[in-house]
Write a structure and sequence with these properties.
- By secondary structure, the protein is α/β, with parallel strands linked by helices.
- The chain has one domain: Spore Coat Polysaccharide Biosynthesis Protein SpsA, Chain A (Alpha-Beta Complex).
- Helix content is 30%, strand content 19%.
- The chain is built from eight helices and eleven strands.
- Strands 3-2-1-4-9 form a five-stranded mixed β-sheet, with helices on both faces. It has a four-stranded mixed β-sheet with strand order 6-10-8-7. A two-stranded antiparallel ribbon has the order 5-11.
- β2, α2 and β3 form a beta-alpha-beta unit.
- The longest helix is centred in the first third of the chain and has 14 residues.
- The protein starts with a strand and ends in a 6-residue tail after the last helix.
- The mean pLDDT is 95.
Length: 248
C-alpha cells in the first residue's frame, strides 16, 4: 500500500480534540496504522512553517518521502496528491490510501481498512457523523427525516460495513480503480473548496461502491465532526489520541 498523507499548518480555526495537532496526529497514525516494510508513505507538507519542516526532516527524512509545497487550499493540496499518485510506479492491484494530519486512529486500523477493501471499491475508516443527522438539521441530503440511509450492511472479521453515498476526500482503493476514476477526482478539486460530495455521487453513478465501518476506524479531530465512540472502547477521542484523559 502507498499512503499519500497531507500535513499542513494552515488548518481551520475550530475546536479540536485537546492536544490534536499535526505532530500528535501523525504520531498517532504511525502508531495505530503500523506500516509494514512493503508500504510506502509520502508526506506532502503543504503550507508548513520552517519549524514543522525541520521537524519532519529530522524525524522522518530517512524513512519516508517528504515534499514541501504551498498549494493554498485543501483542494489544491489534494490535487498535488493526485499528481504524486500519477507519478507513482504502482501495480494495478496495489492499494492506495489518502489521509491527512487531523485524523485520530483506533488500534488495528490498518487491518480494519484492509477488510473494507475486500467489500467495496472504495473504503473509508471514518464513520461519518453526517450519516446520522436528518437533512433538515444539516445532515447528509440523501438521508430520510429520521437521519437514516438506505443501505446494505456486511460483516467482516472486525467490523460491520455499510454502503454509503459519500465521505470526505481521504479514502482507500486500488491503484487500478484510482487510475480509472482520475477524471472525476481532478474535476472535483479545480476550485479552492473540494467538491467531495459531488465527487462521490459521480463515482456512484459510475457504479463504484463505498463502504464505511461500524464502529469507526478513525475520527476527525474537529469536535463538531467527531465520529461516534460507540464500540471503540474509548471514553473520549482525547484518550484515543494520547492514551489518557480527564474523564475519570
Amino acid at each position: 500500500m502507498k499512503i499519500f498523507y497531507r500535513l499542513s499548518d494552515a488548518g481551520n480555526i475550530r475546536v479540536r480534540v485537546p492536544g490534536a495537532n499535526s505532530e500528535s496526529c501523525l504520531l498517532n497514525f504511525l502508531d495505530r496504522f503500523k506500516l509494514s516494510k512493503y508500504d510506502q508513505l509520502f508526506i506532502l507538507a503543504d503550507g508548513v512553517n520552517d519549524a514543522t519542516w525541520n521537524w519532519l526532516n529530522r524525524c522522518y527524512a530517512n524513512e519516508f518521502e517528504l515534499k514541501r509545497t504551498k498549494a493554498g487550499s485543501e483542494a489544491g493540496s489534494f490535487k498535488l496528491l493526485l499528481d504524486e499518485f500519477v507519478k507513482s510506479d504502482l501495480a494495478p492491484h496495489d492499494y492506495v490510501y489518502f489521509s491527512e494530519d487531523d485524523y485520530i486512529y483506533v488500534p488495528n486500523s490498518r487491518n480494519i481498512l484492509n477488510e473494507g477493501l475486500m467489500i467495496g471499491d472504495y473504503a473509508t475508516l471514518r464513520l461519518h457523523p453526517d450519516k446520522f443527522i436528518p437533512p433538515s438539521e444539516g445532515g447528509n441530503p440523501l438521508l430520510d427525516e429520521k437521519g437514516g440511509e438506505a443501505t446494505r450492511v456486511y460483516l467482516s472479521v472486525d467490523r460491520f460495513w455499510m454502503l454509503t453515498n459519500s465521505t470526505g476526500m481521504y479514502p482507500a482503493t486500488s491503484a487500478k480503480i484510482m487510475q480509472e476514476d482520475l477524471d472525476i477526482w481532478y474535476w472535483g478539486v479545480q476550485e479552492r473548496a473540494s467538491k467531495d460530495f459531488d465527487i462521490w455521487l459521480k463515482l456512484r453513478d459510475k457504479g463504484r461502491t463505498l463502504v464505511m465501518p461500524i464502529p469507526t476506524g478513525n475520527c476527525h479531530s474537529e469536535l463538531e465532526s467527531a465520529s461516534s465512540l460507540i464500540g471503540t472502547g474509548f471514553c473520549c477521542w482525547e484518550k484515543a489520541l494520547h492514551g489518557d484523559c480527564d474523564c475519570e
